[in-house]
Write a structure and sequence with these properties.
The chain is mainly α. Among the domains are: 220-278, no CATH class; 280-396, Serine Threonine Protein Phosphatase 5, Tetratricopeptide repeat. The protein is built from 20 helices and two strands. A hairpin with a 2-residue loop joins strand 1 and strand 2 (36-40). It is rod-shaped, with a radius of gyration of 45 Å.
């Protein structure tokens, strides 16, 4: 439009200039062609030529516009469809994020075919359908994505990842595990696939597979979630090996456990209890002693005090060192009482047990006091302490 106006102004300026130049002498032009004769002034010829050129240009422009018109109309219609598809997608996503599942599904599916990336529509619609409990529609949308993703690795990855997440959310553990494993086949280092597979294995109680996965891919599943899953897997595996009475396998698993996990109190305690049950009390005592030399652990202290070790004098010395370091903890007082009983130090045993019964009476403390009374020929007191121990153990 601007160029046309500039051209008109230019022609007007040129015409005015020509009229001014020819004001004194208009000139004379004669054109003869066969039986046609055209006589005019020079100014009239110039104006006629300008007018002819303008008409020719206008006709040429009209012809070009006419030729391009179908394509222009199609382009305008396509832009209009894409604009409506974009607005529908945006509306669907807003409804999805705000929890309006039904409206979200409608908006996401309605113009999915006109959207630039219909896979996003169908993946989001599948999430909305799952929230509505419409598993059939969810699977239909996922199938649409699967068809569109053929030959497009990134789309296939998005499809498998979404499918695994939805299956896991729905409790379809076998399907979710298979989908996560398919995703890992395409990209073994895919962090999301590893996390999904770990969640599946945890819920399926596949402890050995979970343990291996979390150790091999420590960076993929980090933080507290990795610790809670690995801790549970290690405890379950240690318990299963303990039940099979294979002390060699128990020790091998412990050696294969990461150093950080060996310091976790629950895992360490499970291993120590396994050693005790499988008649490896010396190793259990050494483990407990090393741990308590570094930090306080009430369960390990109680376990250490219950062990019948080859060196009861050394055992008592260690307990007394920990009493100095950690204070008169009930577990250490009971352990000290037991160690004194083994060393036949009746008076010292009584002082430890009296101290714990005054501050934190427990069934184990009453039991050790009953043993002490039996050893010192006080059967009536022993019976009284046995009774109190039973009452304490039965108390919720």
């Amino acid at each position: 439009m601007i160029r046309t106006l500039l051209a008109v102004v230019l022609f007007m300026v040129l015409g005015a200039g020509a009229a001014y130049m020819l004001r004194a002498e208009n000139g004379y032009v004669l054109i003869s062609f066969q039986d046609w004769v055209l006589e005019t002034s020079l100014l009239g010829m110039l104006l006629g030529a300008v007018l002819l050129i303008a008409v020719v240009l206008l006709l040429a422009r009209l012809i070009i516009v006419g030729v391009r018109l179908p394509g222009s109309v199609r382009g305008a219609l396509e832009r209009h469809r894409q604009d409506r598809a974009r607005k529908s997608f945006e509306s669907g996503m807003l409804n999805l994020l705000s929890g309006s599942w039904k409206r979200a599904e409608i908006e996401l599916v309605r113009r999915a075919a006109d959207h630039e990336t219909p896979t996003l529509n169908y993946l989001s619609a599948a999430r909305a359908a799952q929230q509505l409990g419409a598993d059939a529609r969810r699977d239909h949308y996922l199938a649409q994505v699967a068809n569109l993703a053929v030959g497009h690795p990134r789309l296939e990855q998005a499809y498998l990842l979404t499918q695994a997440e939805l299956q896991l959310e729905r409790g379809e553990l076998i399907g979710a595990r298979q989908t996560a494993e398919r995703l890992r086949e395409r990209d073994p280092r895919n962090v999301s696939a590893i996390r999904l597979l770990a969640e599946c294995l945890f819920r399926m109680e596949e402890w050995e597979a979970l343990r291996t996965l979390l150790i091999d891919h420590a960076a993929a599943v980090g933080g507290l979630r990795r610790r809670s899953m690995l801790e549970r897997a290690l405890i379950e595996r240690l318990g299963a090996i303990e039940d099979s009475a294979r002390v060699d396998q128990l020790k091998a698993l412990w050696q294969a456990t990461p150093r950080e996990a060996r310091a976790w109190p629950a895992v360490r305690l499970q291993y120590a209890r396994g050693l005790v049950r499988l008649n490896a009390q010396a190793e259990a005592a050494a483990l407990a002693a090393d741990a308590l030399a570094q930090e306080w652990d009430a369960d390990l202290a109680a376990l250490y005090g219950s062990l019948d070790v080859a060196d009861p004098v050394g055992q008592l010395a260690s307990i007394e060192q920990w009493l100095t370091r950690y204070g008169e903890r009930p577990e250490l007082l009971v352990a000290g009482g037991r160690a004194c009983l083994r060393n036949r130090l009746w008076g010292k045993a009584r002082s430890y047990l009296d101290a714990v019964l005054k501050t934190a009476p427990s069934a184990s403390a009453y039991l050790e006091m009953a043993h002490l009374c039996e050893q010192t020929q006080k059967p009536d007191e022993a019976q009284a302490f046995y009774k109190k121990g039973l009452e304490s153990a039965a108390r919720p």
